[in-house]
Design a protein that fits this description.
By secondary structure, the protein is α/β, with parallel strands linked by helices. The chain is built from 7 helices and 7 strands, in the order βαβαααβββαβαβα. Strands 3-2-1-6-4-7-5 form a 7-stranded parallel beta sheet. The chain is globular and about 40 Å long.
Amino acid sequence: MARLGRATIGLFNSYDPHNFREAHRRALARAGALALALDQNLATFGFPFPEGPSTPKELADWVADTTTIGDDGSYLRELASQGRFQSFSFPARGFPPQLGEVILTTSRPDDKKKVSVQQVIDMLSRGEGVCLIFGLGPRGVPKNVHEITRAHLDISEKGMSLETCTAMGAVSAVITHGVRRSMR
C-alpha cells in the first residue's frame, strides 16, 4: 500500500505582527485539536510569540496554560510532543519546502492557480505533502502570499468567505475523509 502524504494546517498571522492576542491563542488551540483529530500537522507563520518559549513544545505549553479550548490545550501539547507542530517567521520569498505543496485557502482563488478538493486528495493519496494556508484576521493573507502560492483552494466553490475556524474545519475534514474514502 502506498504511503499517504501529510496535510499541514498552516496558520498565517494577519492580525498583529507584534502582539500575541486572544485570537492567536484560540486559533492555535482549535487548530491543534483539529490537526490531532484528523492526523494532520500544524504550522504557524509570523506569530508574535513572547520572548522565552522557543521550541514547539515550549510554545504549546505556553498556549495550553492559558486556554480551555482543546481539552485545556492538551491536544496542542500532544501534537507538539509528536513533533507535528512547528513555528516559522513570515515567508519572504516562499514557504518552507519540507511542508510540501503550499495551497492557499481563499474565497478568491486565481483562476490559473485554482485546485479542487479532489486534486488535493489525489496529491495526498500519491504520498505528496500539502500545507493548507489559512489567513487569520479580517483581511486574510497579504497580496504577496497570494502571489507566492502556486495553488488556491476555495472550499465553498462559490467564492464565499468563511470565518477562519469554520474554513479550517471544513477543509481539513473534507480532505481527510476524501483520502480515507480513496484508500478503501
